[in-house]
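Researcher: Last one for today. Full complex below.
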Amino acid sequence: MRVELSGFGGWPRHRTELVPAPPPARIPAALVPGTVARGNGRAYGDAAIGTVRTLWTGPLDFVEAFDAQSGRITVRAGLLLSDLIAAFLPRGFFPPVVPGTRQVSLGGMVAADVHGKNHHRAGSFGDHVEELELALPEGTLLRCSPTRNPEWFSATVGGMGLTGVIVRITLRLMRVETGWLSVRAAATPDLAATMQALVAAERAFEYAVAWLDGSARGPRRGAGIVLAGDHLPLAELPGDLRAVPFPPARGGRITMPPLPVPPVNRLSLSVLNRLYRTVQLRRLERVEDWDRWFFPLDALSGWNRAYGPGGFVQYQFAVPEGPARGVLGAVLERIARRGLRSSLAVLKRFGREGRGLLSFPLRGWTLALDFPRTRDLPALLAELDRIVLEAGGRIYLAKDARLPAATFARMEEGRLGRFLDFRERHGLARVFRSHLSDRLGL
Amino acid sequence: MRSLLLIGGTSDIGTAIARRFAREGRPVVLAARDVGEAEAAAADLRHRFGVPARAVALDVRDLEAGLELVHGLEPCPEIAVAAVGWLPEQAAVREDPEGVRRVVEVNFTAPALLLAALGRRMAEEGVRGHLVALGSVAGDRGRASNWWYGAAKAGLHAAMEGLRQELLDAGVRVLTVRPGFVRTKMTAHLALPPFLTSTPEDIARLVHRAVTKGRSGPLYPFPWRLVSLLVRLLPASLARRI
Ligand SMILES: Cc1cc2nc3c(=O)[nH]c(=O)nc-3n(C[C@H](O)[C@H](O)[C@H](O)COP(=O)(O)OP(=O)(O)OC[C@H]3O[C@@H](n4cnc5c(N)ncnc54)[C@H](O)[C@@H]3O)c2cc1C
Ligand SMILES: NC(=O)c1ccc[n+]([C@@H]2O[C@H](COP(=O)([O-])OP(=O)(O)OC[C@H]3O[C@@H](n4cnc5c(N)ncnc54)[C@H](OP(=O)(O)O)[C@@H]3O)[C@@H](O)[C@H]2O)c1
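Model: Here's the assembly. Have a good evening.
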């Protein structure tokens, strides 16, 4: 069926033929030139929109094997993270890495090599994948792992769907004694303090992330809240929670109706920032359930529509440790100088490079910024691109909708050639094409 | 707990229904012609929900094989769901004997016959069970675009209504789901209006609630009861193009 699709940011929109995936063995026959896989459409931009055909993996959602001894699990790639957690958390297992929403497919997690709040300890999702199975055009299913067809494995992890359709994933879940976390929140007065507190939190905690206050100005720029957490062992669970060691996901989600006028504006942003701050700082040490801790945004479904029909853009970059402090300062300063506001700003330190040829993480820092799509935005982002490029940084493709090909090529100079060469050599470049890959010359 | 039998074990709606019941610990038997995929679906139910689940091969057009399966299942299932269906291009089957045979058998003869056999077993063995047939709003009134399919579904509705009356005293409930538009592989090529389109999970919740409450009769998702009423009441002079 021909439809108009967008990513989570609501922009850009492209027409494509949307086809639900048949069982794995029949997928190769469904691959026409210009196909890309789509998991749950949570990439922000145009990564999961095929130039001709978009193969929706939703129907590929079987759990195929599970070993309760080792936590080893084999699933089909369309399985949603939320369904995986719902089925296995009650048995004491949790995915080793999760992004900020549970509404993603496992295939999408591999293809973007996603990172979580524990990157400094656990690395990215691809670091926990033991084996992948890919559907390829010539009617074949190909297995790859770090030791078997390793070049296929490293091109596919973080490869944004451009090396084949991932149909099966084997990974190891980790054991947890409860679905609760002990959480600590600390307010920080400026950027230097935020960065310092984050580094300190990483040493002591499994999970650590900082939220930057979008309304902080002048010397307070970069002020925010550092949040740190650890899985809570059963023995430390407060008495009143003993009865529910594995709480279910929050029910009764509030749905944001599509509104003609975006309710997100300057005023509501500063109110929201203040509100968030107040809530986070009400109790500095607390016990939080997994859903609130990992997926705070999932409570309000369709919140991306709050930006109105024009959609929004998320800008996430990573820069190496060395220049990070200067870059982050300069970025916040540019945003302020242009009089723009980011509605959401999340800062995190990365531990190491990912396994994939094009994995996003690098040893350094990453900042994710949400912007309503306004007239002045392109110029600001072009400025930020330059800063990131000069610092030897890169942009997260899962969030990107607008990076120019030339800038991308310079940012990825050291890695791009190998990826393009791999695509060419195996006849993948003709078949697997998304609007993102066409736009970036990937 | 007695099992749920799903006839059409690879159906998207059927799979969602099976999951909804497996979640509460109910064993599942999946009958499908693609037994490999059905076995993968059964493994999924075992791993996810820790319930016994297995697949058996069945092409429902082989009516004798279907009856043999139904009679051989031990113990007798408590819930039987027939989710087989085939929605052909109307023009392609219009006067094609084999196509007509197939559309009637898959949508009407086979589900009616197999559910009838199961209903009798339930009655005889004192199982106060549930028969669930996937009908269609297309069977509520003929339409130019799909009248062979609609006619077969109308036949199924009539059979289920008769069965409901026949099995009333035995305590066997009979539901005929008329799901309206559902986003599945059957309708993947169609443009469906978002407001009137459900997910397989929506239908599964609906069926689960109706079975749990012991309901019988036609079952519609919320807006479709009204749509169906209007469609049926519309005078023929106005019903030229629905
Ligand atoms: C609220 C929110 C918070 C987020 N937080 C984080 C975060 O903290 N960390 C992080 O790393 N990311 C984060 N993300 C991004 C998200 O994790 C990634 O975009 C992820 O890829 C989305 O998965 P999906 O199934 O929706 O994939 P889609 O958006 O459907 O696809 C994303 C890419 O994966 C490819 N793909 C999908 N399935 C397959 C497959 N089976 N085979 C081959 N390629 C495939 C697509 O072609 C596309 O290139 C967040 C997104 C949102 C909306
Ligand atoms: N989707 C809708 O909008 C909609 C609306 C109204 C009613 N319905 C009805 O709901 C039911 C389920 O449909 P669905 O949407 O879930 O579509 P589906 O996924 O295509 O399910 C149809 C199932 O019927 C099976 N089948 C067809 N012929 C068969 C045969 N000879 N032997 C065995 N199995 C056979 C198919 O098996 P294979 O996988 O082997 O082909 C498939 O599993 C159907 O009765 C359909 O008519 C659907």
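Chain B has a mean pLDDT of 95. Chain B has one domain: 4-241.
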